[in-house]
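hiii, so i know i said id send this last week but things got crazy w the move. better late than never?? heres the sequnce for the chain we talked about at the cafe, plus the structure i predicted for it. fair warning i was half asleep when i ran it
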Amino acid sequence: MDGLESIRKYYSTFINSMSDLIKSNNGKVIKNIGDRLLFYFPKTASHNKNEDAFREVIDCVSNILSERYKVNKELCNQNLPPFSYRISMDYGVLDLALVGDYSQIDLFGSTINLCSKINSSLSIPNQIIIGDNLYRVLKSFQLISNDFNFIENGEYKITNNSTGYSTYLIKRKNISIIRFTNFNNKSSLSAKQLKLSSLSYDQDNDCYSRTKIDLSSNKKNNNKKKIILVDDEQDILFTYQLLLENYDYHVTSFIDPSIALNYIKDLPDFDDLLIILDIRMKNLNGFQLHQQIKTIDPTIKIFFITALDILDELLSIFPGISEEQIMRKPVDNKAFINAIKKLINK
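okay and structure toks below
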């Protein structure tokens, strides 16, 4: 697949999947601007007391985040990189124009400009950020306020001396909680998160954990095989998680290497365990983490993934590491899985 075709398929997968979700929640897609998608919800235009209309807005963007797993899995199967979303919303007056042959609608105005500014300067990957106008409307609805937390996310200022415009991070509250036992019996997951994506955030350990058990599968059951991923790039972790899930490994992912180290120290045993480390990480790099893990138990198996071209140097620094324990980014999916299988089954 050449570069142009890959880019075309990459963005068509994103735009088509997002458009279907938006339309199913009575939203309307206006256009895509580069890697951005502009859409709005006509039902909210009548008045700001239509709670059902605003509930559809929140459900829509929440579903977009939930469906990210499905979309990225499809991209992963095509050897394409995963998406990382930045969702910014606000409420206000829009100006409408007819374009082309007067059969297409375009929207513009201060509300759209403000959303664009928020998206560029105050948005957070894979989170929902709203402006103060929308915040005030949503907070006026008791049921929505009961279901969501609104966290201050800073102010947007046109100039240093201007009055700031407040923004908020919106998160769904965990209303229904179930216990899901992983191999240190600490993970607490939202039932809704588990149902939608099966890739869940463990707040106690600041990690993402996913376990897939498919009783109808003819694949070898690897649920006793434990893999710990440590990389400070969330999308990289997400990609590796998708690659490993089809082989029934019990996978736990960490963005913070220090928290990962504490987690490893608390494990009851290190049987059937493989730890996959990125080398270039903040605070504690892969070399340092490797050394500290080996002081816990020198028999723990470790696999390095790095964007650095330092294979020879790494082998000379750590004589105990073999070439089969290191792989360059971006990884080839098949080679990655084969290397993991070979090392974890030793």
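btw The radius of gyration is 23 Å. thought thatd interest u
miss u guys!!
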